[in-house]
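> call design_seq(struct)
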């Protein structure tokens, strides 16, 4: 068994694997790169218009708010 040939084969396989991985990771469109960079979906506060991450937003049905206070304020505005 030729050890040098085996090492070269492994090295070649690793290089091919790296090239394929790099090719797959490369975004085909600019939009996909931007969306992957963001930590999560951004939502707009219905009360002040501030953009906040969805996970940090206060939710009321299909509306989102930056804080509990704005949620309550908006609720009062809508009910009256
Ligand atoms: Zn707000």
């Amino acid at each position: 068994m030729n050890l040098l040939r085996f090492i070269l084969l492994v090295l070649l396989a690793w290089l091919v694997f790296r090239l394929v991985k790099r090719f797959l990771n490369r975004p085909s469109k600019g939009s996909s790169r931007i969306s992957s960079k963001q930590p999560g979906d951004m939502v707009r506060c219905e009360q002040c218009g501030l953009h906040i991450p969805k996970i940090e937003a206060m939710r009321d049905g299909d509306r989102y708010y930056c804080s509990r206070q704005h949620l309550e304020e908006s609720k009062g505005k809508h009910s009256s």
